[in-house]
Model the fold of this input.
Amino acid sequence: MSETAIRRASLWDFANPTRYLAIAGPAIPWLAGVTALLLAAGLWMSFRAPADYQQGATVLIMFIHVPAAWLSMFCYGVMSVSALGTLVWRHPLADVSLRAAAPVGAVFTLLALVTGSLWGKPMWGAWWVWDARLTSVLVLFIIYLGLLALARAIEDPATAARALAVVTLVGSVNLPIIKFSVNWWNTLHQPASVMRMDGPKMDPAFLYPLLVMALAYTLFFITLHAMNMRNEILRRRIRSMRMNAAREAGGA
Amino acid sequence: MIALFLRELKLASRIGGGALTGLLFFLAVVTVVPFGVGPDLKLLARIGPAMLWTGALLASLLGLDRLFQGEREDGSLDLLLMSEHPIALIVFVKSLAHWVATGLPLVLAAPVFGLMMNMEPVAIAASVATLAVGTPAISFVGAVGAAVTVTLARGGLVIAVLILPLVIPVLIFGVSASYGAVEDPAPFLPPFLILCAITLFFAVLGPLAAGHVLRHAAD
Amino acid sequence: MFGNYAGYIVPAYVLSALALVGLVVWSVLDYRARRSELAELERKGLKRRSQAGADRANG
Done:
């Protein structure tokens, strides 16, 4: 049997944008369908969960807050891997992936912050507290905003790709440092009342809906990411067509 | 390398008073805060170290786009890249010179501002020490932001947003150490040493990352 | 059903729904805009470099 037949599929199969479009096009509706099913299942399970004896009905917010927070970090992870793809492996679609993910990650981070506020006010009496986790997520949000600003500011795609990749990686290297320092700062300035952000130990009645919602959110991101990558590829095609036309017009 | 350092120093001190702008901003912060919180001397002494650090941090961030300003203006980036020295080393030297020109004045002005905030001598000394060790970190990691925006006309604010999250640990440990020297149970040495470690880490990471970006910005 | 917490739970869900739906709508609208822009450019006879090469090869 020839070598090519036994070759395992790899990310390099997607290296060609045309190939990516051909694969992503039919895949996206399926991904969207699975996402919708999971979301429906998750919501149904969430609303059937009993009211938590400590938190009352506000535990419902947990089912959309925690997945948003997980996704904000998962998204940055995807961006970091993409950044490595640009700098180390020079994968042609790595930059496309980073740009497609950045706004989505920013939205998830903001969602985590806002839903967290709405959960915090009835539960712990404050819209915002400077505890380690909230502060770290706020800093992550600022990192996202910086990356988005940078993406808009640099015109040349190649320069922008490298810049975004480097800044994303420097950011990810620093995330443990930031988390550690914020934790340190927070333990020094421990607020008077002890906050228990985790709530009581997770009962399966709450854990299962949470996991399903987390899975639904993850698939939502994957679907959306595939869609956004497709749009970014189209955008680059348009750009190269226009530049080609300008070049030919100039030469004619 | 020494020649490059001295040249950078001379340039940095000359360019439109970049150092002076940072200093003035620092002064502005220290002046405005008492208007905001009231002239209660005990309160000012208590928030003194934090305000010194906040002012110095913001002033440093705003001065970062001067790091590669000369190269941007006369297009000598290519010359820099063709030098026999590794680009990371060149960036390191430039960042160091940038700190001497813009960060060091802030450190030297800190005692005066500390007196204005009615801080104790121990508090002032600790703040100056932490600022002296911590502000270079801002220049080193700020080099990444400056390198990335070297092609932009007004990259200053983008740099600030990009670098701000990364220098938050510097701020946290700088202020922790300053308060540690004043308040009894709070330790001084652990946060101070961590601050030193962060500066050393950024001294390596910053120039490496910035050099990598610059090598291809000129393409 | 929500007790007196409705004022917090409802906005949380509504904002989340708006954000997620908004992301999807934005992506879909962007896709359609790019597609029509591409169609417009192709109609005007613009080609991509690889396509132009193929055309030249085919004569």
